[in-house]
Amino acid sequence: MAGGGGAAPAPKQDELQPHPVKDQLSDVSYCITSPPPWPEAILLGFQHYLVMLGTTVIIPTALVPQMGGGNDEKARVVQTILFVSGLNTLLQTFFGTRLPAVIGASYTFVMPTISIILAGRYSDIVDPHEKFLHIMRGTQGALIVASALQIVVGFSGLWRNVVRFLSPLAAVPLVALAGFGLYELGFPGVAKCIEIGLPQLVLLIILSQYIPHAMHSEKAVVDRFAVLFSVTIVWVYAFLLTVGGAYKHAAPKTQLHCRTDRSGLVGAAPWIRVPYPFQWGAPTFDAGEAFAMMAASFVALVESTGSFIAVSRYASATPVPPSVLSRGIGWQGLGILLDGLFGTATGSSVSVENAGLLGLTHVGSRRVVQISAGFMIFFSILGKFGAVFASIPAPIVAALYCLLFAYVGSVGLSFLQFCNLNSFRTKFILGFSVFMGLSVPQYFNEYTSVAGYGPVHTGARWFNDIINVIFSSKPFVAGFVAFFLDNTLHKHDNATRKDRGHHWWDRFRSFKGDNRNEEFYSLPFNLNKFFPSV
User: Fold this and answer.
1) Which of 17, 98, 195, 383 has the fewest CB atoms nearer than 10 Å to its CB?
2) For 283-393, where are the alpha helices, taking DSSP H only?
3) Where does the chain cross the membrane (predicted)?
4) By mean pLDDT, which of 134-138, 458-462, 469-473, 510-514 is the weakest?
């Protein structure tokens, strides 16, 4: 060895060992049951509130003008969504899965809502406000009926029996595409105003990844509040550009995306207003629309299952027992019922961006998310103050999505540690399900954007909606294909069980199987006596 030209020393045996498999994520600063100190918890809760605002504003901005509403109606719908999201998040964290999951507005329900907007029976209403009210009542009726699906499937324990068959291998495409599948909301949104979106993206990565790496400090301040810092800096910069007249002669579209005063929310929002059930009038019911909304509800149920699994990982909890997932889905159904009663124009599901924020901050504490729900309710009632935060330019939000959705996608990939990647069966199921999960919705979305309607175009509108909604969801298609293949391809021999990672999750299939479940998922106020988890 002395000549310098000798062979490298043989690596030690332990260096060649692969990384150990962990059923709980380590390196999380505060896990699900350990809250940070109050000042930090309140700031982290506010950060969660800021992150969920994006979807809360984007959906009404897309839907309300089509429904015939103006800025006044838009501001009221945003407030209503915020209020109901706060309630749903509290219900989910106290009685549902008890995971730190934010329950917010869901894109899945947008397609059936647009279908209701385009329904023939509203086309002869001339007054836009009247039209808005009629369409809103139609969506409310459809949501109320659709909520029954999740309530029944969740609380009856039916979903528990389905999830029991979910192996780590089938969970990978479902969870990964719950994050990666939202790629259309990332950079395309940033590019709508690149001079605001790109600095936000770069600054967020510098603050959350590079600065902590360079500082070597024990206290994680910069990375934990990277979203707050970067959004504040870039928002002020965007405001200065607006005031300085940078967009005076820009095209109207550029002005809409770049200017900080274009959302129309601050002027239209009332100072104080409490949203209440049936505020738009009595809901109206239509069987076909209810079926279409039910399809969306089913898709949201599957997507939320993936998001719940991601949240449990970032909260450093054990894999979610099927009975707890089922309970969470039941409470989410009650959440959709609240959406229908209050009139939010869209249903709700687990907020993917907030699941990603748990990964970015390394804080998976339940209390933080409960505090964020408090912020949602507080700012939904104090309309003007809430509207100020809600008017963050969309490219800033899209830049956050680039990182937050990526965290959820990567947590999906992390379940591959339980699988045998050298097995051809694993390679086939993994590759085919991810590919189809991207490819099938791509066809449906492309066809719709060109033709104005989906590939399934029969005389029955409700049937078209059902098929088009189901196959436009990337996590649903990928999860369904993986689940089906994984459970039908020669699964009986022991080697296959090991390949798909099934044995790793065996002891989490029942609530009593692992004593850590009690700590993470048991209900408060001794309610487990009355509602035992199996």
Assistant:
1) 17
2) 287-314, 322-342, 352-361, 366-381, 383-390
3) 46-65, 77-95, 101-120, 141-159, 165-186, 193-213, 225-247, 368-390, 396-416, 428-445, 465-485
4) 510-514
Helix (H), strand (E) at residue 64: helix 38-67
| Rounded distance between C-alpha atoms, residue 45 and residue 52, angstroms | 11
Q: Which residue has the higher pLDDT, 516 or 129?
A: 129
Q: State the average pLDDT over residues 18-30.
A: 85
| Cβ-based neighbours of 352, under 8 Å, separated by 6 or more | 178, 179, 182, 307, 310, 404, 405, 408
CA 17/CA 213 separation, integer angstroms: 27
**Which of 31, 167, 148, 96 has its CA nearest to residue 533?**
96
Element (H, E) at 229: helix 226-243
Q: Would you state the structure tokens that stand for residue 210, as one six-digit string? A: 């590079």
Please state at what angle helix 394-413 crosses helix 38-67, rounded to 10 degrees: 110
Q: Over the stretch 202-248, which tens digit does the pLDDT of each residue have?
A: 999 999 999 988 887 767 788 899 999 999 999 999 999 988 888 88
Residue 463, amino acid = F
Range 122-136 burial, b when 16+ CB lie within 10 A, else e: beeeeeeeebbbbbb
pTM: 0.93
Query: What are the tokens at 292?
Result: 């279409």
Name the DSSP class of 452: S
For residue 477, give Cα distances in angstroms to 154, 168, 359, 390.
21, 17, 25, 33
Q: What average pLDDT does range 369-377 have in this prediction?
A: 97
Residue 219's CB is within 10 A of a number of other CB atoms, namely 9
Q: Which range, of 10-24, 115-129, 145-159, 173-187, averages the lowest pLDDT? A: 10-24
259-296 confidence digits (pLDDT tens): 888 777 788 888 899 999 999 999 999 998 999 999 99
Work out the widest C-alpha separation in the chain, in whole angstroms. Answer: 92
In the predicted structure, residue 302 carries a pLDDT above the cut 80: yes
- The reported pLDDT for the residue numbered 491 is 64
Closest-CA residue to 476 (of 223, 218, 304): 304
Q: In 10-134, which ranges are E strands? A: 103-105
Treating both helix axes as pointing N-terminal to C-terminal, what angle do 394-413 and 352-361 enclose, rounded to 10 degrees?
A: 80
Helix H, strand E, coil C: the string for 237-274 is HHHHHHHCCCCCCCCHHHHHHHCCCCCCHHHHCCCCCC
Q: Is the pLDDT of residue 3 over 60?
A: no
Cα 317 to Cα 517: distance, rounded to the nearest angstrom: 8
